[in-house]
From TrEMBL:
It catalyses: thymidine + phosphate = 2-deoxy-alpha-D-ribose 1-phosphate + thymine. InterPro entries: Glycosyl_Trfase_fam3, Glycosyl_Trfase_fam3_N_dom, Glycosyl_Trfase_fam3_N_dom_sf, Nuc_phospho_transferase, PYNP-like_C_sf, PYNP_C, Pyrmidine_PPas_bac/euk, Thymidine/pyrmidine_PPase. NCBIfam families: PRK05820.1 (NF004490), Y_phosphoryl (TIGR02644). One of its GO terms (cellular component) is cytosol. Residues 372-446 form the Pyrimidine nucleoside phosphorylase C-terminal domain. Keywords: Glycosyltransferase, Transferase. This is thymidine phosphorylase. One of its GO terms (molecular function) is 1,4-alpha-oligoglucan phosphorylase activity. Its EC number is 2.4.2.4.
Length: 463
C-alpha cells in the first residue's frame, strides 16, 4: 500500500534542510492543482510556508528538475511532434524597452518558411508563450495587444495552426497550461519569495518546456535594469535554467546581457511595436534609426544562436549574419505580417506605424549642460515608464497603449547643452510630472565618458 504524503510533512522536511523525494514534490504539486473550495488538499498557508522554505533552503539539481517537471505536467502541454519540425524559443528575464521577441519570432519564422519540410511546414517553428508587464519591466502581450484585433489568447489547436501556416505563434499562457505556476506565482508576490532563483527557474522553465521545445535560448539580464540585483545572482539564475532545460532533454543556452539602459529607441507598448516594424521595413543599414542599433545587435545575436541550434547556421556568428540578412531582405517583415494576420491583427497600421502613435500629451527633457551621458538607474527609468501609464503595479491593472518614452541618447554619447535626452508620452497629462522628476534625477551627464560594459557579458552552456 502506497504511503500517503501529507503537504505539511513536505513543508517540514524542506524547512529542516532535508532533500525532498520525487514523490514528495509531485504529491505537493498534485495537491496544489487539484484542491477545491470543498476539499483543501493543501492550504494557502502551507503553500506559503513551502515557498519560504525553498527561498531559505534552496533546491538540489534533482529537486529543481522534479519541481519543474511536476509544474510542467500539472495541466495540458503543447505537442509539436506532428509538425515534424524544429521548435525553438527565446526567453528574457525582463527589461526596459526589451522588445527582441517582436523581431526574433518573425526572423526565425522567415528562416523556417524559406526551407519548409517535405510536408510544406516551416522547418523552424517558434511557439512563443509570453507574459505581461509587471513592475518596472515591459510585457510582450501588452505590446502585441496595441495592434487592433490581435488575439494573444489562442487555444493549443490554434497555436498549432499558426505554427503550421507561418512558423510562429505569439501568445499568452492558456488557463490550463501549467496551472501550478499560476497558483505559485500569485502567492510568491505576497510571501516575499519572488527573488528566489530556484522558484524563478521552476516558473520560467515549466512554461517554456510545456511548449515541447527542441531548443531554448535565454536572455538573462544583468545591470541596473535587471530583475536580479547582482551579476553573481544573474549568473546563478542562468546556470540553474540551463541545467534544468538540459536535464529535461531540451538544448538550452543562456546569454548574460548587459542592461544598464533601455534597449533600443522606445520603451512603452505601441511605440515598441512601431520601432520593430521600422527595423523590419528598412532595406539598407543606413535607413535604420541609430538609437535602435543595440536592439538590432542583440536580436541578431539571440536569433543567431537559435538558427545555429536549429541547424540553419554552422556557428552562432553565422546565424547572426543570416538573421540580419533576413531583416534587410524584407523576409522577416513578410513573416511578421503573416503572424499578425493569422492572429487576427490589423496589418494596415504597418504602412505608417508612426501615425498610430496618438498620446494625449508629451514632454521633452533637455540637457542642462554639456558632457557625456555617463549613467542612469535603468530600473528607475522603467518605473518612470510605468508611472506614465505604460506598465502596471500589480497583475490586472490596465495599461496605456500610447504611454512611454523615446530616448535620444545612449550611455557614452557626447551631449550638448540644450540637447534632447528623452521624450515622455502619456494619455493623461497629469501623469507627466512624477516621471519627469524621476528621469531628471537618474540621467547623469559627466565631463568624461564612462567605461561601458560589453553587451554580452557571458554565455552559459551545458559544459
Amino acid at each position: 500500500m502506497t504511503q500517503t504524503i501529507h503537504p505539511l510533512d513536505v513543508v517540514l522536511h524542506k524547512r529542516d534542510g532535508r532533500v525532498l523525494t520525487d514523490d514528495e514534490i509531485q504529491a505537493f504539486i498534485h495537491a496544489l492543482v487539484h484542491r477545491t473550495p470543498q476539499n483543501q488538499l493543501v492550504t494557502d498557508a502551507q503553500i506559503a510556508a513551502f515557498l519560504m522554505a525553498v527561498f531559505h533552503r534552496g533546491l538540489t539539481p534533482q529537486e529543481l528538475a522534479t519541481l519543474t517537471s511536476a509544474m510542467r505536467y500539472s495541466g495540458e502541454t503543447f505537442d509539436a511532434s506532428p509538425l515534424h519540425t524544429f521548435t525553438v524559443d527565446k526567453h528574457s528575464t525582463g527589461g526596459v524597452g526589451d522588445k527582441t521577441s517582436l523581431l526574433i519570432a518573425p526572423i526565425l519564422a522567415a528562416a523556417g518558411l524559406a526551407s519548409p519540410t517535405p510536408a510544406g511546414i516551416p522547418s523552424i517553428c517558434v511557439p512563443m508563450i509570453s507574459g505581461r508587464s509587471l513592475g518596472h519591466t515591459g510585457g510582450t502581450l501588452d505590446k502585441l495587444e496595441t495592434i487592433p484585433g490581435f488575439n494573444t489568447q489562442l487555444t493549443l489547436d490554434q497555436i498549432f495552426l499558426s505554427l503550421e501556416k507561418c512558423g510562429a505563434a505569439l501568445v499568452g499562457q492558456t488557463p490550463r497550461l501549467v496551472p501550478a505556476d499560476r497558483i505559485l506565482y500569485a502567492l510568491r508576490d505576497h510571501t516575499g519569495t519572488v527573488e528566489s532563483p530556484y522558484l524563478i527557474t521552476a516558473s520560467i522553465m515549466s512554461k517554456k518546456l510545456a511548449e515541447d521545445l527542441n531548443a531554448l535560448v535565454l536572455d538573462v539580464k544583468t545591470g541596473s535594469g535587471a530583475f536580479m540585483p547582482t551579476y553573481e545572482q544573474s549568473k546563478l539564475l542562468a546556470e540553474l535554467m540551463v541545467q534544468t532545460g538540459e536535464s529535461s532533454g531540451t538544448r538550452t543556452i543562456a546569454l548574460l546581457t548587459n542592461h544598464d539602459e533601455p534597449l533600443g529607441r522606445f520603451a512603452g507598448n505601441w511605440v515598441e511595436v512601431w520601432e520593430c516594424v521600422d527595423i523590419m521595413r528598412a532595406r539598407r543599414i543606413e535607413d535604420r534609426h541609430p538609437m535602435s542599433a543595440d536592439l538590432i545587435q542583440l536580436s541578431n545575436i539571440l536569433s543567431g544562436w537559435m538558427l545555429h541550434l536549429a541547424g540553419h547556421a554552422p556557428t552562432p556568428e553565422a546565424g547572426a549574419k543570416l538573421s540580419d540578412e533576413l531583416l534587410l531582405s524584407g523576409a522577416a517583415f513578410k513573416a511578421w505580417l503573416r503572424i499578425v494576420a493569422i492572429q487576427c491583427g490589423d496589418v494596415s497600421l504597418f504602412h505608417d506605424p508612426a501615425a498610430h502613435h496618438q498620446p494625449t500629451a508629451s514632454r521633452t527633457l533637455t540637457a542642462t549642460h554639456a558632457g557625456y551621458l555617463a549613467s542612469m538607474d535603468c530600473k528607475q527609468v522603467g518605473w518612470a515608464v510605468q508611472r506614465l501609464g505604460a506598465g502596471r503595479a500589480k497583475p490586472g491593472d490596465p495599461v496605456s497603449a500610447h504611454a512611454g518614452i523615446e530616448m535620444h541618447a545612449k550611455l557614452g554619447d557626447p551631449i550638448k547643452a540644450g540637447q534632447p535626452l528623452v521624450t515622455l508620452f502619456t494619455e493623461d497629462v497629469s501623469l507627466l510630472d512624477e516621471p519627469e522628476a524621476m528621469l531628471r534625477e537618474t540621467l547623469h551627464i559627466a565631463a568624461t565618458p564612462p567605461q561601458l560594459q560589453p553587451s554580452i557579458r557571458e554565455v552559459i552552456t551545458r559544459s
